[in-house]
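Bug report (template v2)

What were you trying to do?
Predict the complex of my protein with adenosine-5'-triphosphate.

What happened?
Run completed; filing so the output is reviewed.

Input:
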Amino acid sequence: MNINYKIAKTYIFSNKKLTAVGVLGVLLGMSVYIFMNSLMVGFDRTSNTTVFKNTAHIRVYKDDEISKPLIKDSIAPYLIINPKIVPKINTIINPKKILQILKNDENVVIATPQVNTNVFYNNGKSQISGTAIGIIPEEANNMFDIKSTMVEGHLDHLIHNPNGIIIGSGVAEKMNLTTGDNINLTSSKGINRTLKIIGIFKTNNYNIDKIKSYINMPLAQQILKEGNTYITDINVKVADPETAEPIAAHLTELTGYNAESWQKSNETIVAAGRMRKIIISFVSFTILLIAGFGIYNILNMTVSQKINDIAILKAMGFKGNDVVRIFVTQAVSIGVMGVIGGVAMATVVITLLKKVYIGGDIGYFPINYESTKYLQGIIIGLVITFFAGYIPAKKAANVDPVEILRR
Amino acid sequence: MKTVLKTEKIDKYFHDPVEFQVLKDISFDVNRGEFLSMIGKSGSGKSTLLYILSTMDTEYSGQLHIDGQLVTGLPIDSLAEIRNEKIGFVFQFHYLLPEFTCLQNVMIPALKLGKYSEEEIEHKAFEKLKILGLEDQALKSANKLSGGQQQRVAIARALINDPCIIMGDEPTGNLDSKNSNIVFDIFQNLTREFGQTIIAVTHDEDFAHRSDRIIEMKDGNILAH
Ligand SMILES: Nc1ncnc2c1ncn2[C@@H]1O[C@H](COP(=O)(O)OP(=O)(O)OP(=O)(O)O)[C@@H](O)[C@H]1O
Ligand SMILES: [Mg+2]
């Protein structure tokens, strides 16, 4: 072993208390960093899963418009004195073509149409207002993963049963219904239909479970007295949800309809996530930095304690770089021990927390072993350690041996 | 006679707290195998001169040659290599690394030089300790020895790379007369048997007069040599 490392090793083990304090500092900083950041990833993931159970990555729809002058290029822009939003049919004209355009786009993974209808659920005397969503079951399942939320029945049965309905658990509870029962639907156009309940879903978000139901798209078109080209929304799924925003802008241009990203329709959730990220990043980084200060202090102490050693080593022909190497080795060894301990501790904490049941639509504590966060923590930890050691080491390397030895 | 160390017109000033010339026009030669003592009143500039000769102090004017090579103006890393290979140091205080054994302390400069394998170095270090009568202490921690023993370990360490010059700043300053005599004999033996050169600053009249040659300093000048 190189003599520099031998000396560093001796310094590490000759003052075990000091070394232990340094290691402990890094260990704690490291484990908190990994833990907090993994937790953040977990939070984001849960929050996104919840969002994506009800929201498409991108929703393409027709927006209400202000009436425009009939003659284009007219000098007076508005012949109509008092422009108002007109209740034009908020439908996508020629949906087949738009769907084709969307499906041909390289960024789009799935594009599926949907018809939203406001309805009343009736059973005997009880009546609840809600929303029945007309879907193409298979495609919608790929979109929202409906199957994972089913607590009774099967989504596939909807395909073979044109008069079937899958209701939210809230609706089922309130109206005391189970699979196999009949339910009566009244649409906003006054159409009445009796449907067979073939399944119940539960998203754990009560606000959704108590109003939503899924029916076949043709049925939704019928109860709205519309033809088979009537579509209110086209839902689009992209490969990476984080890229939805720019793709949405692109799709708006491409189709001429409004394409809205999930970030835009969930601004509060996105903003909250962003804030969480800033706070956690800042706090966890600060904690690591403090661990770095610990090492810095320890190294400074060692350098002052060993000033005689440094002087004689330099007199005997050790170069500035040798001295730097001795003390940086000491710092990095403390750092590596701390990092290993921190990784182990974070793993233990995460393992324990994973088993804690929280309930609600979160379920188990939303944390996992996030390898990228481990890696990030290890790299940041080692870089900080290196500099925490390098600064005192550089100081030691600049010690003038004459000043010490002539005393 | 081969010259191992040569100074030409070395001047040195200290600027703090007041401008003051500590060394004035120092020129002398030291031959191979010479045992040289430097004496003079306290404050006459002996240590200052010795640290210039050692290459550790580079702030002077004039020229310094070691082993035929002009070392004045060399980069500090080259100077470190020259010290490692060609100069051994003994100070008034031993400056041993307290956490290492005596043997390890002696080995350090050789491990740095890296000319021999670790086994060979260990063997050599043990031999050096033997010369100084310390073979029983080899595996003891350096801070568990008496002052005289520690000083002898420091001398063994100075010898490990077989340097052509051994420099001492009051190497016997902390020793009683018995130990001083031991150190003197060791030094004399080194010059006689191995042709190594000794330059020792001392306040010990007896020590100086028994050596081969005396350089006396006064107020930054060399009086006699
Ligand atoms: N770093 C310094 N700054 C200013 N003056 C210094 C410095 N070092 C030494 N001196 C002065 O230089 C002069 C010579 O000092 P030096 O240590 O060389 O003397 P010396 O001959 O070794 O004395 P002693 O026998 O007491 O060790 C003294 O007057 C001292 O005060
Ligand atoms: Mg002196």
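What did the reviewer find?
The longest helix of chain B spans residues 177-194. The mean pLDDT of chain B is 93.
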